[in-house]
Amino acid sequence: MEQRELPTVFITRAVPEEAMATAAGKVRFIIGPDERPATREELLDGFRQADAVVSMLNDPIDRALLEAAGPRVRVVANYAVGFNNIDFQAAAELGIWAANTPEATTDSTADLAMALMLAAGRRLDESQAELRAGRFGGWAPKAHLGLLLRGAQLGIIGMGRIGQAVAQRARAFGMRIAYFTRTPLTAEKEAELGAVRMDLRTLLATSDVVTLHCPLTPQTRHLLDASALAQMKKGALLVNTSRGPVVDEAALAQALLSGHLGGAALDVYENEPKVHPDLLKAPNALLVPHLGTSTLRTRAIMGEKAFANVLAVLDGREPPYPVNRPPHPRGPLGTES
Ligand code: GLV
Ligand code: GLV
Question: Which of 63, 66, 100, 129 is the most buried (most CB within 10 A)?
Fold first, then answer.
């Protein structure tokens, strides 16, 4: 019998080796650049040679790219839970599955949201800067007064896996939990998390900390615009570990510089890797560079999930974590026209 060649998987950017372990020996890899995202040309070149693609959250996988890539790719498996970078409808029309890595990213993102909340709430960044600048004059009764989490209200926007994981953690700190989502939790879940569903306006007006855990969609783009930010309680804190464009960054910078908001702690930006210059000027902004999933363990599990999606489709099955549903998926390997 003729020996079948291994299927080819294009990984658009080098990932930790641990993330590729489950596919080792089962596929031939084409691996993109190490230190920067793949260019448009590199993406196109890889897509044309591959049966499956593992894409990064900052690769724009749009209709034009998918159409220009030819008939070979069966699945685009994003190495991320967020998939706003993929035109998943165009992919479905072309018979290409799109998939993500939910579950893998939940704990590390929820941990980071808590870290940001604690760091910004307790003013760790600005107070450390003072100390390093030689301005620590000893303990002082009125200095660096921050936010006590116990008894404070946390408003969670988007109550999927990550939002719920944040609620669990915040409850352990004694926070009161409010949430806003399209689909309410079951009464049982609400009771377990001690979470109260509110409309957006009420949540914004009553929360001491607001944290974002919704996906970026046309409905959530600029969900927190100038008018929504103005509805937030004076002195409140905003935490964003979801996607930058959920917040109008210019309006946020304004709300921070005017002193309406007490602080913001951001992991994501509207035009990554650019950061709005006015945010950089706001001393009450804590700004970190998209670290939500950056633990090696998380990145390894994300790889397991991404390759579970890839291997299932290459095997003629549905991916375990689809984000679209092609009505006519491309056929088995070797049948491309
Ligand atoms: C990270 O931002 C992710 O979507 O996994
Ligand atoms: C969204 O997919 C989440 O995991 O919260």
Answer: 100
How remote is the CA of residue 6 from the centroid of ligand 2, in Å? 33
Residue type, 102: P
pLDDT tens readout for residues 277-287: 999 999 999 99
CATH number for 69 = 3.40.50.720
Residue 246's domain comprises 106-287
| Same domain membership, residue 144 and residue 62 | no
1 pLDDT tier (thresholds 50, 70, 90): very low
Are residues 39 and 72 located together in one domain of the fold?
yes
By C-alpha distance, which of 169, 173, 168 is closest to 152? Answer: 173
Same structural domain for residues 40 and 130? no
Nearest to 272 by CA among 255, 251, 287: 287
Is 272 in the active site? yes
Helix axes 106-121, 124-132, angle to 10 degrees: 60
User: Is 3 domain-assigned?
Assistant: no
pLDDT digits (tens, 9 = 90+) for 148-160: 999 999 999 999 9
Instruction: Verify whether ligand 1 is closer than 6 Å to residue 81 (CB atom).
Output: yes
81 and 142 housed in the same domain: no
Name the one residue in this structure whose structure tokens are 């549905």. 318
